[in-house]
């Protein structure tokens, strides 16, 4: 095992397309790090630079104590699990798993022992004589992971390995991967666009956008204390609601005005918001922080709206609404709500859970402090 360090790493394609920009990330020995972001944000390029499949344009990459910028992929002692599994179709499962050991001239006895142990660990020992065409998607994914494990590398690199599985298989395999990591404790870097995978698998999460590292923190930290508007909106299902409005100060009070609704903010926000009087800002409220009942001890915290659709999903109901100015938003409330389409409602906001951002796609979250990228 080894820690993995990226220092000021950049990748520019064709001299003009910046896929990754000044990227810094320190992955601890034995950590499961998930790099998450939308398609095209540079996360797979970052992973391929760690593997050596892409050369860096600038910056340094360390695996353990070794600078690996000029080290060929085969000598970096990392194992990559690809999105399409990349199994050799003419080889059996056993041969696929043993191939890397054979290339390193491992003795046959040691190779058989390693493959058998890993096959038992992954529950695929009964598949060793099959070829990839006879495997399901989930079985192929296990074989690809097994091929990586038998090498006993310093780090595992996962490039969206669950994206080809159906919804049920993704859940099952996600749990298996987490349990496997807890057992092996091998340094792992996992790339995905799926926020659920990121939140459930990662010891920490690195959120990327437009080739830039936006925030690194544990899953709860990223969810509850997003550093900017992009991070806040990317993580969470349904996504965080954003309301454009204006901050107003009067005497000892501070309020956020959204069209015809005025929301009185907690006094603790007064100091941190003092430089934003009369400025256009963005109020962020997660769906679960709305209710059609008043929160204890809070007043003047409602948004008036009309119900469009009520979507029951078992443990809660997602209520899609439109406020008086035409802004659409969603509230996640109790599953037994009596709300129905066209109802006029006042939705209460839990003011202890709100965020206020500067305007712009990556507007800074000004209601938190002490947040750093890493």
Q: Can you put this structure into words, describing what you see?
A:
This protein has 374 residues and is α+β, with helices and mostly antiparallel strands. The chain folds into 2 domains: 4-233, P-loop containing nucleotide triphosphate hydrolases (Rossmann fold), CATH 3.40.50.300; 245-357, Nucleic acid-binding proteins (OB fold (Dihydrolipoamide Acetyltransferase, E2P)). The protein contains 8 helices and 20 strands. The protein has a 6-stranded mixed sheet with strand order 6-7-8-3-9-10, with helices on both faces. The radius of gyration is 25 Å and the shape is elongated. Residues 370-374 have low confidence and may be disordered.
Which key terms come to mind for this protein?
374 residues, alpha+beta, Rossmann fold, OB fold (Dihydrolipoamide Acetyltransferase, E2P), 2 domains, six-stranded mixed sheet, five-stranded antiparallel sheet, 8 helices, 20 strands, 23% helix
């Amino acid at each position: 095992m080894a820690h993995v360090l990226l220092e000021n790493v950049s990748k520019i394609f064709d001299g003009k397309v910046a896929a990754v920009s000044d990227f810094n990330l320190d992955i601890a020995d034995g950590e499961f790090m998930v790099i998450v972001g939308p398609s095209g944000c540079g996360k797979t390029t970052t992973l391929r630079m760690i593997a050596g499949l892409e050369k860096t344009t600038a910056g340094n990459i360390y695996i353990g104590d070794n600078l690996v910028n000029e080290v060929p992929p085969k000598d970096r002692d990392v194992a990559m699990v690809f999105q399409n599994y990349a199994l050799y179709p003419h080889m059996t499962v056993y041969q696929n798993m043993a191939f890397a050991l054979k290339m390193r001239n491992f003795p046959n006895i040691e190779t058989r022992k390693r493959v058998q142990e890993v096959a038992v660990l992954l529950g695929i020992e009964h598949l060793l004589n099959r070829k990839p065409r006879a495997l399901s998607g989930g079985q192929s994914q296990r074989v690809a992971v097994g091929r990586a494990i038998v090498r006993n590398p310093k780090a595992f690199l996962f490039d969206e390995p669950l994206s080809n599985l159906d919804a049920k298989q993704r859940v099952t395999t996600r749990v298996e991967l987490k349990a496997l990591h807890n057992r092996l404790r091998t340094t792992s870097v996992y790339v995905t666009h799926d926020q659920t995978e990121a939140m459930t698998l990662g010891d920490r999460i690195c959120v990327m956008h437009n080739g830039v590292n936006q925030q690194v923190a544990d899953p709860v930290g990223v969810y509850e204390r997003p550093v900017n508007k992009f991070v806040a909106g990317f993580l969470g299902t349904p996504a965080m609601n954003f309301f454009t409005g204006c901050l107003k100060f009067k005497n000892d009070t501070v309020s956020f005005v959204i069209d015809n609704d005025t929301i009185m903010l907690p006094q603790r926000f007064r100091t941190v918001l003092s430089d934003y009087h009369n400025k256009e800002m963005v109020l962020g409220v997660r769906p679960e922080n709305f209710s059609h009942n008043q929160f204890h001890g809070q007043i003047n915290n409602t948004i008036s709206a009309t119900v469009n659709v009520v979507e029951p999903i078992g443990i809660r109901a997602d209520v899609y609404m439109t406020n008086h100015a035409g802004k659409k938003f969603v509230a996640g409330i109790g599953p037994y709500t009596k709300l129905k389409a066209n109802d006029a409602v006042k939705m209460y906001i839990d003011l202890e859970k709100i965020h206020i951002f500067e305007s712009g796609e990556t507007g800074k979250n000004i209601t938190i402090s002490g947040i750093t990228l890493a």
